Amino acid sequence: MTAAPNKTSTTPGAQLPASAISPPLGQSSTTPDTRLRAVSLAAAGAGAGTDTHCPYCALQCAMTVTPAVPEPTIAGRDFPTNRSGLCRKGWTSAALLGHASRVTTPLLRGADGQHRPIDWEQALDLIADNVLRTRAVHGPDAVGVFGGGGLTNEKAYQLGKFARLALGTSRIDYNGRFCMSSAAAAGNRAFGLDRGLPFPLADLDNAHTVLMLGSNVAETMPPFVQHLAGAREAGGLIVVDPRRTATAEFTGDGAGLHLQPVPATDLVLLLGLAHIVIADGLANTEFISKRTHGYDALARSVASWWPERVQSVTGVPVQQLRETARLLAVGAQRGGSYILTGRGVEQHVDGTDTATAAINLALLLGLPGSTTSGYGTLTGQGNGQGGREHGQKADQLPGYRKITDPAARAHVAKVWGVEPEDIPGPGLPAVELLASLGKPHGVRTFFIHGANVAVSAPNASEVLEGLRQLDFLVVADFFMSETAREAHLVLPVLQWAEEEGTMTNLEGRVLRRRAVLSPPAGARSELWIMSELARRLDAPSSFSSDPETVFTELRAASAGGLADYSGIDYAMLDAGAEAYWPYPAGSQGTPRLFLERFAHADGRAVLTPVTPSSRSARDTLFTGATLALVTGRLLEHYQSGSQTRRVQALSDAAPRAELLIHPLAAQSRGILDGARVTIANGRGTVRCTATYSRAIRSDTVFLPFHFPAEENANLLTSAAVDPISGMPEFKASSVTVTADTPIHAPADAVSEQAGSLDAALEAVA
To answer: Which CATH class is domain 181-377?
Structure first.
């Protein structure tokens, strides 16, 4: 894990023309480049503002926030990840700071179901009384905690400590289990360490070939696309997605390839690419010999996945498979090749194995541990990386330590001033934790911080029922989210521009979040809330309300762990230092991991054979009249939409869920463009508008997951999980689609809306 000097490309070709982000809302956009717009700090107008980072995704774009009336102004700031660009969400992020629907006082739900204000002393005493009562009657594990990947490092760290020491429970997990868990498990399996990108994002600038699987960065983190310019110019951008997404559009005009596989066949696709790399002599045999274990077993495991067989399963033509393997091999010699995975290939019951197959392919080509090539996974949530490193996960302690490791327990116990046996053992991963809500031997009192599980969890109707069966539900939020509406008690907390702290972006780079504005008088920091509750519960150890004090303790707790932050402090971050973990005290940090050795004891990476699982744990797709449902994000919205649906400009641009359906699939079901449809399976029913799209396979439909109530896509998704990571099966559900009002128009009228049959067939893999 040796560090190398940071490389930030300054070549003109490293940025897309006029590169980052969104045209003004209300203007049309028809091509990827016109969706994006560069705004320099000078052009935006520099004022007496505070430098901080965007509250949304893990790109953590740098921005300057200046207090103003009626709302603060936002300016993009020059920074290696975003180079002054922001997406629509970033540009409009200040709209929420003074929003009229902000929660500004604790709210207690009465017998009539209405929430009414109470003061903080009453609220905290009520929480403490319920915790003590629940523990006395049902035991400590009847109290549970659910955290979020948007919490600062300080809050994530202290929430884990609070759960285990103040509440005495093992029942803590977080919504990152729905995001990064499979990629993390695969990274630990192969490398001995999980960091989303084990290299600075700017390293992609000069790449010849970039293979992206299951990620639509042009809409989920638009400033990212600047870093794909080099691969586009070399004709080496390869995007794998069942949809012709905005990102896939970047492969047009000779810039690369779009592979459009059958949903849930990504593992087979990757096995086939590995087969070609080995069979065609494209593997880096010197790297494999010197830096890996397990080649012989891996080679045997992919021997049966010859290209024609892979084509028959995935629908991806043999020619595209061979060209992908060739581009990756050639790219490694001409500037570099990178393989990047996202949730589209990971949010499956075989997500860990699929991510492992992507890593195996990268290792066969000798990409990881290089200064010019590599493998990475794209963290989604703002602090999805840091949030999973320091104690929110059911099986981890700070510093990415295993909670079952006696040495890890002893180290953390010493920092906390308790005995190792005072720290509970492993708890339940998110899906199991949520399934236990309100059950006789499950969680009875529940805390939720930074998550909206009523919308975001799989099989959402059952989760909602569990929330309603709880004896006491506490939700800390700044808006009345769909989950907060179910709470017995809602606690008003600070927004991003009102708090100090640190975040860790998708590169493993620790960043400073700075307070710009004073919060509403009734809102409180979650650190303060935990401190006050710990005192009332007579908890061991200390629980500070000061972020820097908490970060200092985090540094000590992480010291010597895989995610070592001990050499990082606020002063160096405020001075602009680049701080990539691991950053042991006395070091210069680690921008690039694995240059000399991997994190396993022998320093080698592990090639692990994986095979496609049976479909018994997931829906059987394409039986009878069913279609495959895939879910994902829209450019305008983030996560469950609890924040972005309140921003008028974003809501106006994407006010509701729309089902994308291929004209051929719609025609065969008598569905006209714009018709109201019902999407259903054994778990639930969704109703929304159908929109024709030739960008999707004819056997597949797409729903965004940002919307609640009858438009909630997660009413349809399965709670079946990956046995290794606990990741739910979000991305492959079998559904039927029917028109709410029967269409009696003649077939030729439907055909006319469907358009040219020849044009439609072009979108079918």
So the answer is: alpha beta
**Residue 494: pLDDT band by 50, 70, 90 thresholds?**
very high
21-35, 317-331, 669-683: which has the minimum mean pLDDT?
Answer: 21-35
**Strand-pair category, 489-492 with 501-504:** unpaired
Which stretch of 29-33, 57-61, 507-511, 602-606 has the lowest confidence by average pLDDT? 29-33
Q: Residue 156 is encoded by which pair of tokens?
A: 């994530």
CATH class of 617-764: mainly beta
Phi, psi of 477 (to 5 degrees): -160, 170
Angstrom CA distances, 317 to 257, 262, 268, 276, stand at 12, 12, 13, 13
| Residue in the block written with tokens 């006491």 | 472
Residue labelled with tokens 């990212």? 224
Q: Where are the domains of the chain?
A: 107-179+383-509+524-560, 181-377, 617-764
What is the rounded distance in angstroms from the CA atom of residue 649 to the CA atom of residue 25? 7
Residues 6+ apart with CB under 8 A from 81: 59, 60, 61, 62, 201, 202, 223, 224, 505, 507
599-624 residue pLDDT tens: 999 999 999 999 997 655 567 888 88
Strands (E), 153-247: 172-174, 209-213, 237-240
Compute the Cα dihedral for 155, 161, 164, 170 and give only its sign. positive
How much is the CA Rg of the chain, to the nearest whole Å? 25
Which residue type occupies 738? T
Instruction: Compute the CA torsion angle 106, 112, 114, 116 (nearest 10 deg).
Output: -40
Identify the DSSP state of 714: G
Give SS3 for 259: strand
User: For domain 107-179+383-509+524-560, which CATH number applies: 3.40.50.720, 3.90.650.10, 3.40.50.740, 3.40.605.10?
Assistant: 3.40.50.740
User: Taking a C-beta distance cutoff of 8 angstroms, is the pair 134, 526 a contact?
Assistant: no
Yes or no: say if 474 and 491 are a contact pair by the CB < 8 Å rule. Answer: yes
- Residue 221 CA to chain centroid, in angstroms? 11
Q: Give me the residue label for tokens 């948007």.
A: 150
How far apart are the C-alpha atoms of 444 and 20, rounded to whole Å?
47
Q: Which residue has the tokens 């983030």?
A: 638
Could you please report the per-residue DSSP string of 69-132?
A: SSS-EEEE---TTTTT---HHHHTGGGGTT-TT---S-EEE-TTS-EEE--HHHHHHHHHHHHH
Token couple for 324: 């992908």
DSSP-derived pairing of the beta strands 684-692 and 658-661: parallel
* Polymer length of the chain: 765
CA dihedral 347, 352, 355, 361 (to 10 degrees): -150
Strands 172-174 and 143-147: parallel
Cα separation of 588 and 657, whole Å?
A: 47
Cα–Cα distance measured from residue 640 to residue 456, given in angstroms and rounded to the nearest whole number: 6
Asked if 88 and 22 touch (Cβ cutoff 8 Å), the reply is yes
Q: In sequence order, what are the residues at sequence separation of 6 or more whose Cβ sits closer than 8 angstroms to the Cβ of residue 406?
A: 420
Residue type at 201 in one-letter notation: L
Predicted TM-score (pTM) above 0.85: yes
Identity of the residue numbered 6:
N
Please check whether residue 262 is in contact with residue 699, taking contact to mean a CB–CB distance below 8 angstroms.
yes
Cα–Cα dist 4/1, whole Å: 10
Q: Is 41 helix (H, G, I), strand (E, B) or coil?
A: helix
Backbone angles phi and psi of 108, in degrees to 5: -105, 130
- Residue 703: in which H helix or E strand, if any? strand 700-704
